[in-house]
User: What shape does this take?
Amino acid sequence: MTGSRTGDYRILQEAALRDYLAGLPDIAALLGGAPAAWVITEVGDGNLNLVFIVKGARGGIAVKQALPYVRLVGESWPLPLSRAHYEYLALTRQAQLAPGLVPALLHHNETLALTVMELLEPHIIMRKGLVAGTRYPRFVDEITTFMARTLFFTSDLALTAAEKKEAIAAFAGNHALCKITEDLIFTDPYRIAEQNRWTAPYLDGLAAALRDDMELHVAISRLKLKFMASPEALLHGDLHTGSIMMAESETRVIDPEFAFYGPMGFDVGAVLANLLMAFFASAGHERAPGERQAFESWVLETVDQVWNEFARKFLELWRSDAGGDAYPVSLFAGEKGAARLELERQAYMQRLFTDTVGFAAAKTIRRIFGLAHNIDFELIEDPKRRAISEARAVRLARGMMVEAVAFRTIADVTGAARKLRDWQPELSG
Assistant: This one.
């Protein structure tokens, strides 16, 4: 249900939100009871938006409203409200392509930059579960289904050229969110920037080394160019473990307000990066040596499986549903053509893997030296222990970015991570 109620944008606090929802018959019926009795709680702990949970006598909903600025910083950093529109478009498309893996949309008001969605309970943010050492047996199957289907079916492998260009145009206006990514991930961590921060003083030397590492600067600049100039598929754009909600029996991907058409490896790399950071942070959460060994093994096994299952599912879709204008079927007729096309599919996936490795590295470094950090590391109370975990992650990330082609398989990545588990860095301070 989409609404376009008259009136200018205004930030809805509890009383105004209650009145607004009471005026939506379907939503009021879903909640049940008198509006005055609804319990409204603001739970937004992200960087950009207001998020409310509303519960009535019959049920509950989640309400998300974009703010006209970056919530983490304040009104000094304005941000267009249109990002809520792009998030709504992305969720709508993702629901079509990967049903059951995103929250159900119940109402959207473009003027208010407000979306009402199903309330996900008893789901928790995956990152919080990983900090606690929780394992999720269904995660691999569900996140790889989400990525394979949303990326394949929005690519030139599945779409005609005209369909693809129209789809790119629909998201082209989300450039303000892309600009955040271009600055905070691909630029700021490698220069002196006002909003950068890190675990000082222990990582002061490492921060300075990043700013002086010209090979790293070339590598990150190549990734930035790929991000800006390669509209391969519709990306979630911020697919980290804070944008994934987990319950024992299901996975939901949330918050695609950074959605745009970009390089597929950016989304896949984001998932792998956040799992690798969970692995390196784990040692800092130990209360006794070795108590999280089984969890850490599971994390690295999950990294392996996420790439392998994603690649398998993506290739299966390419073999069965290739209706796009790329690699025309007429050029690959007969056994000879089929065999050559299969070789090209494998080469395509190898190139995608190299992109994924590089983007995973970029996502890791920004979470340690940029503006927005991960609780995986931030909740390690002892700053020196935190810095050790972070330095291990950065050592791996630097190698992955500068020597991405040297990582031929996902086992090369997890093997390198395993070797760094107990490496002792030289810290500053």
